[in-house]
Every structure is written in structure tokens, then in C-alpha cells.
Fold this protein.
Amino acid sequence: MVIMMKAKALFFLFFLFVGISSHLQAQISFDAKVSKKRLGLNERLRVDFVMNQNGDNFVPPNFTNFLVVSGPQQSVNRSWVNGVSSFSKTYTYFLTPKVKGQLTIGQAQITIESEVYKTTPIEIVVTEAVEKPNDPNNIDYLTDENIHLVAEISNPSPYLNEGITIVYKLYFRNPISITDVQELESPSYGDFWSSKINIGRAQVNPRGQYKGEPFNEVVWQKVVLYPQKSGELKLEPLTLNLSLNVPSNRRDLFGRRILTQGQKTITAGRRTLRVKPLPLEGQPENFSGAVGQFDFDVILSKDALRASESFQAKIKVDGKGNLNLFKLPKINVPNTLEVYEPERSENIKTTLAGTQGSVEENYTIVPQYQGKYPIPEVQFSFFDPKSKSYKTLRSQELLVDVYDGPTAGIANTDRQDGTLRTPLPVSESTFRFIQLETKLTPIREPSFWMSSKFWILFSLAFIVLISGYLIDRFILQKSEDSSTIKQRLAQKLAKKYLSSAKKAQGNQVEFYEALERALHNYLKAKLKIETTELSKAKIQTLLKTKNVEHEVAKDFISVVENCELARYAPGSDGSIQADYERASKVMATIDRQL
């Protein structure tokens, strides 16, 4: 009785334990946890979203007023202790606050067993930036001391439209190693004309120097800027997210510090440029905004030509400066010369030394009358930031001699700057009536391409090609027809002998002679060989080269040998009929395999 009572008590406790365990396991939880609820503006916050059952369709909060440094990082943990299993799944984010004040981590949600679960919002207080402890074992201290991103500016106080270069460099040293770099924010140059310099793949320079100390150096970005307005101009910072291997406080069996993976957001900081306006004193009237150091010239393609021919006048500026950002001066020519709109061409490259190269405009000019036409000097003004002064360059006055053409009543060689015209003598051919009938001859021979001669030769070549093709096909077809006729005759002859053998089944000798002839003629028809070539070895080789199965070839040889033996050895009617059917079968089999 006592034993029965104890057994009942044990069963009761067991089912109670199982029920409690099942009830505990059935409770689903989904919570948000933060590493701290109060932090400085320059500190990072870790946020974990933890669930005790696997779910789907995870939706994180918006993280308003936070910068997501990394995440989500997903981790799963399963365990089995004392017969009880446990499960947890975590989504981890690392955040950096953007503003100070009381901020809120919103609700995240997930679907577990067709039910939607949400976390509770968490309030975070963000204070002023805090001074980080100088603990050499602290990860933040290690990264702050051993990683730096700087923006090197060639000139923090340039003139308007003066080129400056900015080089962004990343410095790091032991014990930090960088495994990946992502650009979170790239500077925008709204008040600048900018041109990035292609640096290719980033290379690590192990001999870099930062504040006099040795560092690994990586040039991340190079850019050339030309400020487009004066005053204080802000440069937005470059922000990078670094994946790091950082030594932790733990050590392995050999006493070495264990490396842990971490994330670090680093910025070059906001920079301010003080752009000086160009001086108004001494500014030439023809100044068009060129800033730098330049050379200037006007070049004529020819200085003597016939009337109605054309020549080119090239205005060229080369040097170093804002070559893309100013207009070239116009050329002034006598108004009796016909001038077309210029064509602009540029040969510019951008390096750390700035933008350098040349720009030019080519004018096409056509004189209508003979005479001597002056091309007045052209002036080009620019501001030189090195000497802090304006400079004006002048081209030489050029003269174009036009000959062998009509003369105008008064050749208008006025310059557009108002100087006097030079009168030219009037000839009796100055004004003529338009001729109604003319005899014009082409200046050059018409092109052969697409001409009548071209089409005639093309047609002849086409006819020759088609004729050659048809003749070749005819010869080939005739050869094939001859071979086909011979093959058909041989097959017909084989059938004839096979039928002759069938008729001679009453006479053993005549039957096997006819059957052997039929087999030989069939092979001659299929393999295209002469009668003298029909040895057994030859037959075996030929059938093998024609991919006839070995057993079929062997069977064919066996029938031939049987015919040879049966002519001299008596046989029954049954063996004659069997040999006939065997010969028919092997011929049909070979015919299928050939």
C-alpha cells in the first residue's frame, strides 16, 4: 500500500513538472535591450532584439536621430540542460546618436507562429560629448589613439576660382587591423566646381607619418576644387565605417591577447574655407574670370590664299588654372571676311597640381575678295594668385594676303574697333549679272563607290561567283548520281541472286553458289569495292571501318564459309532454308547499320 502511494506521488510530480515545463516553453517573449540608457554624443549604443522562438518577417524600428553604424548582426543560441531545451535569436545594431536630448528607440516587430509581436519603446538620454577614459585596454581608447582620418587641404584661404586640392588620408597602426571600409557619407561640394582624381585601388603605405609618429597610411580620396563664391564655405565631412580586429582583455593558452571584431565610425570633420574675392582694383575690362598662370596666342593656318578659299584662326590658352570656367576672347576681323562660329576643343587633365592643359577655339574664315587684310591683336586677361595681380597678354597683329580673286568696289577692311577703312580700286568686273547658262566641270573626279562602274563590276563578279557555284554543284551531283546508279544496280543484282538462290533450293550446289554470289554482290554494292577485293579478311576489315558490329560481321563471314562448305557436303532441306533466312537476316542487319 505504501509502495502504491509513493508511485502515485512520483507520477503526479512527473506530470506536474512536464506541465510546468510545457507552460514555460509555450510563453513567447520578444524584447529590446540596450547597452546603456545614457550616453554622450560621441559614444556608441548597442541595441539587441531578442526572442525565445524562431520568427519571420523581422521589422526593425526607424532609429530616428541615430546613425546605424552596423547591423543587423544575427546570432542564434540553442542549449539543452537537464532535459530542458532553450532557444534564443538576437538581432544586434550599433548606433551613434546624431543629436542631443531624450531620444526613443521605437518598436521592432516579428511574426512568430502567425502572431505579430512588438517590443516596448526604450527612452535614451544623449548628453554632450564625453571625454573617453585613457585606459589602454579600452576598445574605444585603442581605436581613438590608433585610427585617424584627416583631410589635407593645399590652401585653406584661396581666391575665388583658384584651384585647391583636398586629400583624404586614413592612418592606422598596431594593434589595430582594418578588414573592411565602407563610405557612409561622401562630401558634397555645392559651392565648388569639383573634379575627383582617379587613384585606383587603395594601397597601404606602411611608412606613413601622422603628427611625427609612424602609421600605416591609405590615401582614400583626392579631389580638386574651384570655389565659385567668396566668403566662408563649409566642407561637409567624409565619414567612413571601419570593420576592425581589436585585441581584447582575454588571452589564449599562450598568453596572447584574443582579437575581437568591432566596428568604428570615423570622420574627417567639418572644414571651413575662407575664400577671398578677386580684387576690383586693376581688373581689366576684358577679364572673363580666368584665374591661374597661362600663355596665350593667336595662330593662323595660312597667311596667303586665293579668294573663296578658307583659313583657320586659332585662339589658344594653355597653362594651369580654371581652364573649364572662363570664356576665350573673340577675334576681330575686317567685316569683308566671312567668319563662322568657332569650334571649341579642350585638352585638360586634373592632377594634384591642379587642372592643367589647353583650351582653344578655331574660327573658319573665308575671304571673298583679294586684298591684304589685317587681323588685329587679341587681348587675354587673367588673375595670377601667386603674384596677386592681373595680367594681360596680347597677340601680334597678323596680316592675311588674299590674291587671285575679284576686287570689291571698296574693300571693307574696317576693324571692329573703329579704325578707318582702306579703299581698294574698283574694277569693271566688280558687279556682273548672274549667268543663266554655265558650263561647270567637276573639281574632282566622282567617287568610284556606288558609281555605274562600281555596279557593273559588282554584277559581273556576282555572276561569276553564282556560275562557279552552279557548275560545282552540277559536277558533284553528277558524280553522286553515277555512284548511286552503280549502287542500285549492285543491290538489284544481289536481290536477283538471292531470288535465284531461292529458286534453286531443290539443287544444293546451285543454291549455295547463287547464295554466295548474292552475298558478294550485296557487299560490293554497299561497300563500293571490286570483286577482287572480296577476301574474308578484307570483308572483316571493311565492315569494322563502317561501324558494323563485330557479331554481325562474324555472322556474315560464317554464312559465306557455310556456302563454301555446303557445296561439297550434303545437307538437308532444313539447313538450306535456314541458310537462306540467315543470309537474308544478316544482309538486312548490315543494311541498317551502314
